[in-house]
């Protein structure tokens, strides 16, 4: 009579271990791959002039919303001519939403409902990765009104921190004869695609790109958590104290 409860307890213990071991391995992997921030860059010191940037996190994709005038100023200060040309192309808009992703999927999928999963899986698992593009959108509305379908995380950067972000963004642009290379009309609003550096793979998705720019600006990030937009938003909330 006692054998039944004993077997049930063992089964429950086995089931619990099967859950806890993968969770522990994931936590260890996240800790081992975490990238530290740079306290000389972030957060800005009291009294420093600050620039507010915003992570825009949708269901499967994230990008950064950057103030255009500040981005143009930073591009000029660091000599990023191609990035400066992008800001001039969108001179009529106070902010730019910029994202990075697989050239084929990004340009061919205007909404998540239109996603071809076979194409998405091919993008993730192609050996050596696939070509990438940048998507740049001119934004005139307030972030709350422009991105009602997304989670928006504001972050205050110092001028030095923002210049580092701008430099990393400038390196993401493919430059030909000193100019950015346009790759066709964008998905929504006043937008364009640009050819981009880097290869899209399972280990380098759009959210890793967003996190990489923020890490260049001095913020701590955790690539394993940052694979999905919600994970990146939570990572910033836990480790980077977003602006209120």
UniProtKB/TrEMBL annotation:
The keyword Signal applies. It comes from the Bacteria. InterPro entries: CHP02117. Residues 1-29 form the signal peptide. Keywords: Signal. This is Urease-associated protein. It comes from Methylobacterium variabile.
């Amino acid at each position: 009579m006692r054998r039944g409860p004993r077997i049930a307890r063992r089964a429950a213990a086995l089931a619990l271990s099967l859950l806890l071991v993968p969770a522990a391995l994931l936590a260890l992997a996240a800790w081992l791959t975490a990238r530290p921030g740079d306290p000389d860059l972030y957060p800005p010191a009291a009294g420093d002039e600050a620039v507010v940037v915003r992570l825009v996190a949708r269901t499967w994709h994230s990008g950064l919303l950057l103030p255009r005038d500040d981005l143009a100023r930073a591009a000029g200060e660091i000599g990023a001519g191609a990035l400066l040309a992008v800001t001039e192309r969108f001179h009529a808009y106070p902010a730019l939403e910029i994202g990075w992703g697989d050239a084929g999927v990004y340009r061919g999928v205007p909404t998540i409902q239109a996603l071809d999963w076979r194409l998405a899986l091919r993008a993730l698992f192609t050996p050596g990765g696939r070509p990438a593009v940048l998507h740049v959108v001119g934004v005139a509305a307030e972030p709350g009104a422009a991105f009602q379908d997304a989670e928006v995380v504001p972050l205050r950067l110092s001028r030095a921190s923002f210049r580092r972000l701008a430099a990393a963004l400038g390196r993401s642009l493919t430059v030909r004869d000193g100019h950015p290379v346009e790759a066709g009309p964008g998905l929504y609003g006043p937008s364009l695609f640009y050819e981009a550096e880097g290869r899209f793979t399972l280990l380098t998705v759009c959210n890793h790109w967003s996190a990489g720019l923020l890490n260049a600006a001095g913020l701590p990030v955790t690539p394993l958590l940052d694979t999905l937009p919600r994970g990146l938003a939570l990572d910033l909330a836990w480790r980077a104290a977003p602006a209120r």
